[in-house]
Amino acid sequence: MLVEQFGITVRSSRMPHQDSSVKFLDSRVICTERYGSGLSKRYYCGHSGALECERDSTDQTYHSLRDVFVSLFLPHGFPYSVSEDYLEYQLWDTLQAFASSVTGSLATHSLLRGSGVGDSTATVTAATITWLLRDGTGMLGRIVFAWMKGSRLDCDAKRWRLFADILNDVAIFLEILAPVFPLFFTLTVCMAGIFKCIVGVAGGATRAALTVHQARRDNMADVCAKDGSQETLVNLAGLLVSLFLVPLVSESLWVTYVLFLFLTSLHLYANYRAVGSIVMETLNQSRLSIVLAHYLQEGRILSPAAANRMEPLLPGLGVQVPVELGVPLTSLINSVSRLEVLMKGSRSLYLLGWRPDTERLAVVLHEEASSIDVIRSAVHAEILHQRTRSSSHSSLTERDRVAVLAETHAQLDLMFADFHYGAFLHTPILLTCIYLVCAPRDGRPSAIC
């Protein structure tokens, strides 16, 4: 809560004592108290100098209902306990969740019909086997996806969040379409089950990453719990709408398809707006490329909001630097002479060069490398990639690579201190938390002494 006295605002975590029957002898307001939910109280000098308080009498009913809603569905201390983009994201997320809930009901209706509900020739055993195959293939898909992409979900939380919702719509479309092709019903349902399990992994993991971003007072549990309450309320609303819609579409596939097309369009648009409203204060490869390119052209650092607006959200868009961070020494060095070449001109706690086997940029980290060294190596890789991307790596001779590497070392020595200082002025979080989509699959970067 906020207390305003003589032009000074301070925070308080205690809730007010509710008393609306206080009589005041002195009309002079000593101070006013305002809470994050909008509740306001005024404090007066009462009998014998006692401090008396009175709640703002304007729109008591409105404020009471609003306070109840805020306490039920928003984190304690809102809006000061969450990030500035919290409300906009949650509003769009609520809309997309409603659309997804209704389309999910349409898909369930189609699955039950395809499984034989209402068909006298269908058997319970066949429907059970189909359901078990669907669940089993989905579980396998969940494990494989988490193994292949789990370490990358933190880095591009926004992009993977959008990917999960797009894949969810594809899965729902397959479920709605499954009864149309009875010969391929089981195959279609199993494919949809795999997609939905992938959605569960990607969506749940990225939601956790976004919760870390939104929670500003070590209140992750509260933010997560209130997000669950919001989702439950939206699903309840979707359930009520579905109870009205399902009887209307039970006899017409075309009505189902039209509703699915409309709701899916709404779902995708709301998702894009929700993800686009997030302002991440950490660097990943996309945001680092944007910030660095702007710095090299304009000589100044973009703010986190500007960098996030320019970040591509759709999967497959944007330029990704082919760099691997934290590779074993043997992946980069195959001779003593090559080690000497890579160390020439470098005063940093990392080695940067091209892998002999894949021609990709790779970084070997020193065991004492700090987060600043990691950022420096990533910036160095970006600069080196920009210098060499116009020509094929295979067309560059070893001498050309050595020369370019030495030039970029010198360029980095001149500009990194200014780049680091400018980024730190915008937000310290930008430099203390860096996520790069280039870690090895085992998640354990190699270090050298």
Count of β-strands = 9
Proportion of residues in helical segments: 55-70%
Form type? flat
Predict the CATH topology of the largest domain.
Growth Hormone, Chain: A
Keywords: Membrane, Transmembrane, Transmembrane helix
Domain Root UVB sensitive protein C-terminal: 300-422
Family: Belongs to the RUS1 family.
Transmembrane segments: 191-210, 231-248
Question: Could you give the topology of this structure?
Answer:
Blueprint lengths: L1 E4 L2 E4 L17 E6 L5 E6 L5 E5 L4 H14 L12 H29 L9 H26 L7 H21 L7 H30 L5 H30 L3 H24 L8 H14 L5 H7 L12 E3 L3 H4 L3 H8 L6 E5 L6 E6 L4 H18 L9 H29 L2 H4 L14 E2 L1
Parallel strand pairs: 6-8, 8-9
Antiparallel strand pairs: 1-2, 1-3, 3-4, 4-5, 7-8
Briefly, what is this?
The chain has 449 residues and is an alpha+beta fold. The protein has 14 helices and 9 strands.
Account of the protein in words:
It holds the Pfam family UVB_sens_prot. It is found in: Membrane. Helix content is about 55%, strand content about 10%. It is built from 14 helices and nine strands. It has a five-stranded antiparallel sheet with strand order 2-1-3-4-5, with no helix packed on it. Helix 2 (about 85-115) crosses helix 6, helix 4 runs antiparallel to helix 7 and helix 8 packs across helix 12. The longest helix has 30 residues, at about 185-215. The protein is flat and about 75 Å long. It starts with a strand and ends with a strand. The model is unreliable at about 1-25 and about 430-449 (pLDDT under 50).
